[in-house]
Amino acid sequence: MRVAIESLVREQLRPYLDQMSQLSSEIEEVRRQMQSMIRLGRVSEIHESHQLIKVEHGALTMPFIKWFAHAAGRVSHYRCPSIGE
Predict the structure, then answer these.
(1) For residue 85, which of 43, 23, 39, 35 has the smallest C-alpha distance?
(2) Would you give the DSSP letter of residue 55?
(3) Which residues contact 55 (CB under 8 A, 6 or more apart)?
(4) Which of 70, 27, 19, 65 is nearest to 44 (CA)?
(5) CB 65 within 8 A of CB 80
(6) d(CA 21, CA 74)
């Protein structure tokens, strides 16, 4: 009797357990993506146009990307970051 009840309960809970497993996988994927969104690194190369830079983060090197200078208020000048920043 006990085995039959446990089997019935397991069968009734299966859709919820499957959904929990799927949501857990999705949460892990979103967590992984969030960790990759913003990474601090160092400028390793500057494009000749001074509008693109390559950034290193540990052993990873990004392709040339646009950079921006974050500032609040009026900005009277702007400069390209230097290698090592």
Answers:
(1) 43
(2) E
(3) 41, 42, 43, 44, 61, 62, 65
(4) 65
(5) no
(6) 50
- Give the pair of three-digit tokens for residue 83: 């290698």
Give the pLDDT confidence of 38-78 residue by residue, as tens digits: 878 899 999 998 889 999 988 888 899 988 777 767 766 77
State both tokens at 60: 């990873």
Pull the structure tokens for residue 31. 């967590």
Q: Which of 62, 59, 58 is nearest to 45 (CA)?
A: 62
**57 has which bridge partners?**
60
30, 85, 75: which is closest to 54 by C-alpha?
Answer: 85
